[in-house]
Design a protein that fits this description.
It is built from 14 helices and twelve strands. By secondary structure, the chain is of the alpha+beta class. It has two domains: 183 residues, no CATH class; 180 residues, no CATH class. The protein has a six-stranded mixed beta barrel with strand order 2-3-10-5-7-6. The longest helix is centred in the C-terminal third of the chain and has 44 residues. The chain is elongated and about 105 Å long.
Amino acid sequence: MDFLESTKMAVKTLTANKLRSTLTMLGIIIGNASVIAVIGIGQGAQRLASDQFESLGPNVLFVSPGNSRARNGPRGDLPRTLVLEDAKAIASQVPSVQGVTAQRQSLFPIVYRNLNTSSLVVGTTPEFLAVRSFDIAKGRFITEQDVERNTQVVALGSEVATRFFGNQDAIGQEIRIKGITFRVIGVMQSKGAFLGSNQDDSVYVPITTQANRLAGRTSPYGLDVNIISIAAKNEASIPAAEFQITNLLRLRHKITGDDDFTVQTQKDVLSIVGTITGGLTVMLAAIAAISLIVGGIGIMNIMLVSVTERTQEIGLRKAIGASERNILIQFMIEAVILSAAGGLLGTGVGIGAVTLVAAISPLQATVSPVAIAVAVGVSGGIGLFFGVVPARQAAKLDPIVALRSA
C-alpha cells in the first residue's frame, strides 16, 4: 500500500468521527493560538516601549539620585543627592550637551471652583520643552523669570485643561494647588501615555515654586530634584556626555567610592524594558506551549482508544497481506493529520487574536512568521511523537488474536 492510499484511508477514518477528531485537536488549537498571540503581543509591547522612549526627546540622558542598590531598597530610604545646582553645572561645564532641565514632582490636589482632582505637579525649568520634546498648544511655558521669582503660574496638561475648562479658554484663569492660587499661563500639546503614565494628566510649575510653596525642600545641599534630563548634541556625543557628566558629579559630590547618582541613556532604559518584556513574553509563551503537550497527550489517548476499537479492522488487513509497516504508517499519518490540522486552525485563531489586539489597543502587535513556523512545526512534531506508541501497538497486533477478539 503506497503513502497516498494510506493518507486517504487516514482522512476517511478521521472524518467518520468528526466530533471526536475536533475535540482531540482542541488542545493543539488552543496551544498554537496562545503561542502565536503571546509572541505577537509581546513584540508589540516592545515596539510600543521603544516608540514611547523615542518620544522623550532625541539623544536624551537621565540622571537620577542614588545608585541601583539604593533604588532597590525601601522607598523612604531613597537618597536626595541631586540638586538644581547640579543641573546648572552640567549645562555650563559639559561641552557635549545642548540642553539640561531638572524636575521634581509630587501628587497634589487641584481645585477649580467646584471641580477637583489629584494630578502630578511637575516643578521644572524653561528648558523642559526643548529637552523633553514637549510643545505648548496655547499661551506660554515657564520662563527663567518665573523660576527666579517663585511665580505662582502653571501650564496645564491637555486633559487637566479639558477637565476643568472644557472648550473655554483656560489662559488667565486661576486654580488652586494644595490650597495655593496659581494663574494658568499655558496649555500643553497632547503628549499621550508613557509606560502606563498619562503625561497629559500633569501640570507644570516653576521648580522653585514647587519646592518652596508646595512640597518643601528636603535636602541640606540645595533644592533637591527627582531627575535631571539632558539632551546631548547628537547621538555620537552621548557616550562622551555620559562620561563627562559622571566625572563632574563625582567631583561636585566629592565621591571616592560608589556613585550616589545614576546616569542612564535612552538605550540603557530601553534595554532594561526590552529585557523585562522579552522575559515575560518567553515565560508566557512557555506556559502557553504546555497546552501543546497536553494536546499531544490527548492525541495519543484517542489513538490508543482507536486501536482498541479497530482491532478487527487491523486483524483483517494483516490477514489479507498488510504489513506491520503499512499499519504503522496509517496510524502515524492519522496522528500527524490531527496535530497539523489543529496547528493550522490554531494559527488562524492566533492571527485573529493578534489583529484584534492591534485594532483595539495601542500595542503594535504583529504576527511573527517565525512564531507561526515554530508553532505549526512543533504541533506537527508533537503529533508524530505522541502517535508512535499507539501506531506501534496497532502494528504489533497478531492478526489471529485480533480476529478472534473481534
